[in-house]
Structures are given as structure tokens and as C-alpha cells.
Amino acid sequence: MKHILLFAATILAVVLPCVSRAQEVVPVHLTRLEAFEATTGRVVVKGTEDLGTVTGKNGLTIVKIQEFRDVIGNQRESGLVITVRQSEQLEDSTTVDYDELDPLLKAIDYISKADPNVTSLNHFEAFFTTKAGLRVASYISRRTSTVEASITSQRANRSKTWINQTQLAEFRILLEQAKAKLDALRSGK
User: Fold this and answer.
1) 32-186 architecture in CATH?
2) pLDDT at 3 over 90
3) Domain-wise residue ranges, the chain
């Protein structure tokens, strides 16, 4: 009987830490927009505006401007909500803070010009990921041997749409328009 209890105790000592590790939650880092919206105890005005859509090969990407204003403290946060709709059943949205727009635009400039010469290996992928998980990438398609691109929202459901270089340029134009609109809002115009 002692041996059975000792064996059971040993098994529990080994298994319980593994079970508890399996249940650990990966921390989600809120963007500044998400943190502003989550704050309680104040009156907040939320403004949104749909800016445009880029239709890809298997879905679409929607760009929406978002601004929050604390009425009493007159604090503001602004940025974008990028929704990637892979299908009627699968879509995900990622928030992009205003301060991430310039790095994202510069990354798209590089990504849109990337070609197989960026590496000496057979295949490449050039990508940029924002803090909240929006990923823009270009890659060599194994199927067509041409450079293609993708936009992925990885915030909750991981939704991805494949696009060509022209559609990537359209997405960049939408981001430029959004930044210009947010710049005007921030300067009070």
C-alpha cells in the first residue's frame, strides 16, 4: 500500500506542473487605443470612419479610422482598425496605434519592392508585424513563382487574405489617407 501511495504521489508531482503550464494564458499586450477604450470611470467619445477596402484573392481588408477622446481630461488616442475578412465565417480585426503608421508605411515600401534577390536561398518572405499582430508580407509564390503579398490579422482568430502587388499598393494608399486624416484630427483641423 505504501508503494502505491508513493507511486501516486510521484505521478502527481510530475503531472500537475505540466497541467498547470498547459493552462497558462499568453499575455495580450493592449495597444494604446485598446487601453484607452478599456479605462473606466470617465466619459469617452469614440469616433470611427470607414476609409476603404482592398479586395484580395480570397477575401478583403477593411481600413477604419478610430479616435477616442476623454471628455473631462481632453486626452486623445487615435489609430486604425484593420479588419481582414478571409471568408464569410472568418474575420479578425487588429488595432494599429497612430505611432505605428510611419514604420508600417516604410515597411510596406520595402516589402513591395522585395524580390527573390533579397536572399540567396530559393524562397523568401519579407514581413512586418505590428504590436497587436497585423502582419503584412510579400513572398515568392511556390505555385506561380511570382512575388505575391498577404495581410494577416492575428489578434484573435488569425484571418489572412492573399493579395497581389497592385492590391498591396492600394492598401498602402489607404494607410497614407488614414494617416493624413489622423494628422488633421490631431492638429485640430
Assistant:
1) 2-Layer Sandwich (3.30)
2) no
3) 32-186
